[in-house]
Design brief:
single chain, alpha/beta
Length: 553
């Protein structure tokens, strides 16, 4: 092995910065159930510049292993000025996040005296022999000379995670795909990209998708507009409307094929107050025109009349396609307390038309629920306590750029355990759903222009890096991120806890989570050492193994 080349095996929860020394302890073993993915990293550093480094893996299940290079992307806004202390760094610079495929032609590069990392994911897919399996990872020069190697031992346990019960959506921005890939909306190439990104979403625990029946009125400047992405074709004749659902049917079929179970239809009123109609285009007298938008008062007879014709037609489509238990609706995103009346008026219109269909909205003031204005609230994780204390059932939660003090989140600047703790919190409080607004928002704030997410990671200096998207637009399809993988690990933790509960009961599982802590785990209080999360998951797995849990789906 070459002198001056160093390696270190690390967990998925370490963030390897090029300009910092590695402080986290080496991790050389772990465990996973048969049907979950397991990731670890190997950091490497060279005294001199080395190119064309090859990575070889030796294991009993090479075909189940993916190796990617942890890329660095810039962050000019890693956090707000009044951030809490639970961050890794607050300075601008290069942060580890995208997971790039390693191309055979170029291999890896080791930069002088800079730590870099590779990300190794094992996906047993249910057909690996249980037991302990060594995974040898070798770094070589192009001529085959060994630079360094690490061995990681993965124990595969003979049990399977149950199906995910949590409903999970990361808002899917269909227009951003068309814009960044420079393709016509709903062209063949656009549909191909949609399917690629839906597949990646479903693979990482997203089982609900934002479905643009009309162009979603989200993060749009008042008076501005986003590219039209409208799955329902509309035709107007006098005061009568007709609707065609062919594109929506294609969308539903594509998403179900990839594993999506639930469909949340885009908001039927504008964000932050429900004062206007979303942009809706349609044909009138053979001409395509905008029928509704910012100029349309939400309470206008014209828009109410449209909804009274549209929603029954949509419900008919839902029934014809046996989607009755899989559809959710939105009124308006994030209404504030000063907007109670406008939100209430819009909500009443939909309640009258939708009847038993669930209407869900992200909002944080308990007043909306207390007054019966919304039946299915989604409070943020820093405002959820009032809803928990009042016994709200079937409760969801969300976080976005505003939830950056104490609670879980996933900014670049935050330690990865602050992302992963969510699974434990969701389990403890029996949370039914989780929503986030940014799966692939690749625009500047208010959708004023497109940005290159490989160069601008904060929505053009609006939201701390890591808030607006989980995936990058790679040439061949989605480039996943550290944050996406760790979020998936949190969801796997949730399912492992539910599996254990099915055998030993909820009381024992909660006791196991609290074991060794002198405080109660809550949404804003939780262990702040990555080792705790690794050890706790190992304890859970060991108990599953000891209890002899049979494989189940």
């Amino acid at each position: 092995m070459e002198q001056g080349f160093s390696t270190k095996s690390l967990s998925s929860l370490t963030k390897v910065f090029a300009d910092q020394e590695l402080k986290d302890e080496a991790i050389n073993k772990g465990s996973a159930l048969l049907n979950e993915s397991y990731s670890f990293q190997i950091a490497y550093k060279s005294r001199t510049l080395l190119k064309d480094i090859r990575v070889q893996v030796n294991s009993a299940f090479n075909e189940k292993i993916t190796i990617r290079s942890v890329g660095l992307v810039p962050s000019e806004l890693p956090c707000y000025h009044d951030h809490d202390d639970l961050i890794l760094k607050s300075t601008p610079g290069l942060y580890p996040d995208p997971l790039y495929p390693i191309h055979d032609i170029d291999g890896l590069i080791a930069f002088p005296k800079q730590w870099r990392a590779i990300w190794i994911t094992v996906d047993p897919q249910g057909d690996v022999n249980p037991g302990r399996h060594p995974i040898e990872v070798i770094f070589e020069k192009k001529n085959g000379e060994c630079l360094g190697k690490e061995t990681f031992e993965l124990e595969v346990i003979a049990a399977e995670l149950p199906q995910q019960k949590l409903i999970h959506t990361e808002w899917f921005h269909t227009d951003c795909l068309a814009t960044l890939y420079n393709v016509e909306v709903f062209s063949g190439e656009h549909w191909r990209r949609i399917e690629q990104f839906v597949q990646t979403a479903a693979k990482h625990g997203m089982n609900m998708i934002l479905t643009p029946i009309f162009t979603p009125p989200l993060d749009t400047e008042v008076g501005g507009e986003r590219p039209t992405v409208q799955l329902v074709d509309v035709e107007k004749s006098g005061e009568a409307y007709s609707f065609q659902f062919e594109k929506l049917k294609r969308w539903v079929d594509l998403c179900k094929k990839q594993g999506i179970k639930y469909f949340e239809f885009s908001h039927l009123f504008t964000q932050w107050g429900a004062n206007h109609a979303p942009k809706i285009v349609g044909y009138e007298n053979g001409e395509l025109k905008q029928l509704f938008g910012w100029e349309t008062d939400a309470m206008s007879p014209e828009y109410r009349g449209f909804l009274q014709q549209f929603i029954p037609s949509l419900i008919e489509f839902i029934n014809q396609n046996s989607l009755e238990d899989q559809c959710f609706f939105h009124v308006s995103d994030e209404p504030h307390l000063t907007q109670v009346e406008s939100y209430k008026n819009a909500s009443l219109i939909l309640q009258e038309l939708l009847k038993d269909f669930p209407v869900i909205d992200a909002l944080s003031d308990y007043t909306f629920y207390e007054k019966g204005i919304v039946q299915n609230p989604i409070p943020s994780n820093d405002h959820i306590n009032a809803f928990i204390e009042n016994g709200v059932e079937n409760l969801w939660t969300y976080y976005c750029c505003a939830q950056y003090k104490k609670v879980a989140n996933r900014f670049f600047s935050m330690p990865s355990f602050r992302n992963r703790v969510l699974g434990i919190q969701l389990y403890k409080y029996k949370i039914a759903g989780f929503l986030h607004w940014g799966y692939n928002f690749w625009y500047a704030q208010y959708s004023k222009k497109a940005i290159d997410p490989f160069k601008n990671t904060d929505a053009n200096y609006a939201f701390p890096s890591g808030d607006a998207f989980l995936v990058y637009p790679g040439e061949d399809g989605p480039i996943e991120s550290i944050r996406l993988e760790v979020m998936n690990e949190a969801l796997q933790d949730l399912r492992a806890l539910q599996l254990l509960e099915s055998v030993v009961g909820r009381e024992q599982v909660l006791a196991l989570l609290q074991d060794g802590l002198d405080y109660e785990i809550t949404f804003d209080q939780y262990p702040q050492e990555l080792e705790w999360y690794l050890q706790k998951r190992e304890q859970i797995n060991e108990k599953i193994k000891r209890e002899g849990v049979v494989c189940q789906h």
